[in-house]
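Internal tracking record. Fields below are filled automatically when a chain is submitted to the structure queue. Please do not edit lines marked as system-generated. If the sequence contains nonstandard residues, flag them in the REMARKS field before resubmitting.
Queue: standard
Priority: normal
Entity type: single polypeptide chain
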Amino acid sequence: MATIYDVARLAGVSPKTVSRVLNRDAPVSSKTRTAVIQAMDTLGYVPSHAARSIKSNKSGLIGMITGAISNADEAAAPTGLPELFIVQGAQAVIEKSQKTLLISDTGGRLDRVPNLVRTFQEHRVEGILYVADYHKPLELTLPGQGVPKVLINCFDAVGTPAVVPDDEGGQYALTQAAIAQGHHRIAYLTLAPTLEATKLRMRGYRRALEEAGIGFDGALVQATDLYGTPGEHQLIWAAVDKFFDTDAPPTAICCGNDRLAMAVYGILRRRGIAVPEDVSVLGYDDHRLISETLFPALTTAELPYSAMGARAAQMLLTLLAQDAPSPSSLPNAPIKISGQIKTRASLIAPRQAAHGNVIHLKGRNEI
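SYSTEM-GENERATED OUTPUT FOLLOWS
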């Protein structure tokens, strides 16, 4: 088995120079680095990562716990975009730091998380990123005292550093975009009221209306979701019906996510209501497989998953660079990441007809 001394001899350098190349702890010329790497390849030399990490107390490994793999095709859950976007954002930052990201999947089981943390500890990871499948409070206490951690898409009661989407700000900006086009009757078809995102987005919706001097109308808010409820399409249809069972129907409808907006497109078209000529429709997430392929293309708020993953990775690397982070150096609240409003063809100014342009939906059994 080749040793570091064999590599040094073949490369024509000292063992200390080989060590510098391996550990990246001192400047080495490009020519010398190439010679050492070629010698390692020729001899089949594999450095002992375990031995180096024990000596330096730094493994160069970052652990990530996520359900991105097992949940990739799961539609019956209140997720936004696939968690994979968060993973990609974190990986891009970790790679530039010359550390290695180890990913462990939960298999959709929360009870596996403590064991995954312990396994990462056994492999001497320097820090851990924990990714939730949607914005919510963390339902367990993570073990691993002394290992820096950053939560993504969730938060806990003990103040673990966390990165979450700015749901309130996103819905506020989206509602403002509709108001800027001249809409005053803006309906909101929400996801489940118990979701953290729904509570925050409702605040943003109401704040935008209030600042514009538009009174809140509870009849223009209906809750529904797309997540496996029997007869879910009929529930969505009933919610949309309620919006138009009035002499003052909405001219724009905000939807809890892009999949919900897609269902609303179909319901409106079945009832002879044109999008956006009769009613503008707005989504949430910017799930581009939906938002860019719907006709007309969907105006929506970006759920900034890639940016969240990148910001969390940067935060963890900053913590690792500090020998002993003081409490004052840690954020005292989750970091909120804002996304952009993607304005597309589904949002236009409301049409003003000579006779008030009152739109009524036909009943489900009418042709």
